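In this supplementary section we document a worked example of the pipeline. Step one takes a protein sequence of length 107 as its only input; no multiple sequence alignment statistics are reported here. Step two produces a three-dimensional model, which step three serialises into structure tokens for compact storage. The input and output of this example are shown verbatim.
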Amino acid sequence: MDELDALRKKRLAELQAQAGSEQAQAEQVAQAESQIKQILSQILTPESRSRLATIKMAKPEFASQVEMLLIQLVRSGQIQGKISDAQFKALLAKISTPKKDFNIRRV
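The serialised model returned by step three reads:
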């Protein structure tokens, strides 16, 4: 019985340590997300922020890529002031992949 109790206590300690590390990791992720939101709210106008939210609903991967690009541009000093909706559209046009046109011809 003593060995069984010792194993249970050891396993419980391991689980508690694992839960603590997961909680710390979740807090770090939440903190990083809040920093991203703060930076984006400082550099985007309400219209461009709304456009980014729409993109995030349709294409979450592309939206996160755009967010990271914006943050890199801010940190490198290439963006100063707020980005208007027209400027945001131009930035999106630069980084989006060109669409392929298909022509269907009947003979």
